Amino acid sequence: MSAPQRLTAQRAEIVFAGIVFAVAVLLAACFAVGGSATAGTHGERTKAIVSRDGAVVQTIDLGNTDEFDILLFEDDRGSNLIELDGGRIRVADADCPDRTCVRTGWIERPGQIIACVPHGLTIIIEREGEGTPNGPDAVVGAA
Amino acid sequence: MSIERVPRLNRHRNTGPRLPMLRAAIALAILAAFSLSSCAAKNDDTATATASFTAMDTAMTVTVHAHDRNEADEALSSCTEIVRGLDEALSPTEDGSWIARLNDADEPLPAPDDVEKLIEEALGMAEATGGAFDPTIYPLTSAWGFTSGNYRTPSDAEIETALTRVGFRSVDVDAASGAVTLDNEAQLDLGGIAKGYAADRITAELRDRNATGALVDLGGNVTVLGSKPDETPWTVGIADPHNPEALAGTLQLSEATVSTSGDYQRYFVDSEGIRRHHLIDPETGYPAESGLSSVSVVATSGAQADALSTALFVLGVDRAVDLWRATQNDEALAFEAVFIACDGSVLVTEGLSTSFAPSAAYDGRVETVPR
Question: Which residues cross the membrane (chain A) (predicted)?
Answer without folding.
Answer: 12-34
